[in-house]
Every structure is written in C-alpha cells, then in structure tokens.
Give the backbone structure.
Amino acid sequence: MKKLFGLGKGLGSLIPSNMESTNTNKKENVFYVEINKIKANPDQPRRDFDEEGIKELSKSVRKYGVLQPLLVTKVETETPKGLDVSYQLIAGERRLRASQVAGLPQVPVIIRDEFEHKQDRLEVALIENVQRKDLNPVEEAEAYDRLAKEFGLTQKEIADKVSKSREVVANAVRLLNLPKDIRDAVRTDRLSRAHAKALLAFSDETKQREVYNQILAGGVSSKEVESMASSAKPKTSRQAKGKKNSKFIELEKNLGETLSAPVLIQSANPPAGGGGKIVIRFATLEDLNKIAKSIID
C-alpha cells in the first residue's frame, strides 16, 4: 500500500456535518491500494449501473487516473498464515468499476475506521448516490425504506441525512406500493417518476395497470393520469367534498394545521341530524403516532 499526501478533499463534501469527524483539523491521507484488495459494498443502495457509462468513465480513468479517491474501511481477517488485510468499499463504486475495466493495478483511497457498522455504510453510500443523482427513483425509495425498517430511522431523520424534506422522502417511499412490474418500469426508466406518482392516486390495481399500459403506449401525461384518477373517485365522495367546501373548509384547514396531517370532514348523506365524520389521513405509523399525540395532548 503506497501512501500519498495532498489529496482527499473532495469526498468530504458528500458527507453531512453530523457524520464528519469531530476533529475538523484532522488531515485525511490518501493511499494507493491494490484494486483486487477492495471488495464491493454489500449495502450499496444502487443496483443498476449503466455499462456504457462505466466504459466511458474507464476511458477517462485510463487517461487521467482516478481524480477523486474512493472511500473504504479496513477489514482485517485472521488466517493460518497471519493477518490478511483487505478493504471494503463505502463510496465510489462507479470509479472502482471503471478502474477495473481500465485495468488499473491500484486506486487512490481514503481509509476511514468509523464505518464498521452496516447502517453507516448504507448511509454514506446513499448520501453519495443521492447527491450525485445516481439512483433511480426505486433504488432511492428502497434505500430510504431500509433505513427506516432495519435501523428504525424516522422519515424526518432520513430527510435530514440526505438534505431533503420529509415530504420528499415520504413520496419516494410510496413508490414501493406500486406492483413490481410497474416499479421495474420506473427502475429501468421506461416510466417516469411523475407518472408513477400519478398512478398511486388509483386505489384499484386493475385500473392502475390499465392506465399504465396507456402511458407505455404514449400520449398520456402525468397531469392527465391525475385527472383520470380524480374522475374515477366515487360520486358520493365528490358530493361530500362539495358540501365540505361550502361548510367545513376553514375547519378542515385549522384541524390540518394543528395535526400536521390532511383532514377531511364529511357530512352524513343523507344528513342525519347534522352528523357526519372526520377523516384524518396518515402515510406511516410514525405519522399516526404524531397525530395521536397531538390529539391526546
């Protein structure tokens, strides 16, 4: 392993301040290590790589070298012959793949010891990919979902880590509610994020697929899909919405702001002594807990 000084500033900009070393004066050294000693990150959120893009990058790497070091963590394994040292990739898989295609024997790396935990590896890989806009919408949604399910992070905590709003994270995760074949169409860029989001407005999967096929056939915009979904709602719901607009819209707004959640007030149909119901919508268990706390408190 060959040590090199004076590089390694760029990757720090990909990692939020709460994940950086507390010692801001610490100089990060860059080393050249054998490429065959670097193992891929098993927690890499990106699954789909553009092979043509990798080949193009490999031409640049072959000509100019790897200009930005890879981020790795050291892995030490006891063997009968002694201690075997290898490195697990944390961030920079495109650069690693391009370097392999280019046939480079060594690549520059920054070695960090604080990423021994699975969550840390996933977080940093996700942050790099999100900031570089390398993930497709489904990969991004799956990464957010893993952080929530495997590590118990709230959508707000995830949003803070990737410098996005909670609403953006929530809307991304909702894409996982689509049928697998439709998700795969988003993954392969045959279906846009906007179209996929519009399809979520249909509660009926049969109708979702019908409109999905129309989109693939061409000529249906995401706005038109949203309009179709709105028209497909039951007539009684629209009637109730009309009554709400005239009588309850201000109360709905106030309740929604208080509970930080969409609120729908519906009068009985036909009216029964002025009765009706209040519907409070929530997307996740986290949202439900916050609503319940607001009501109880």
Observations:
- The chain has 13 helices and eight strands.
- Strands lie at 2-4, 30-34, 38-39, 70-79, 82-91, 106-111, 263-267, 276-280.
- Residues 240 and 282 are 20 Å apart (CA to CA).
- The two ends are 60 Å apart (CA to CA).
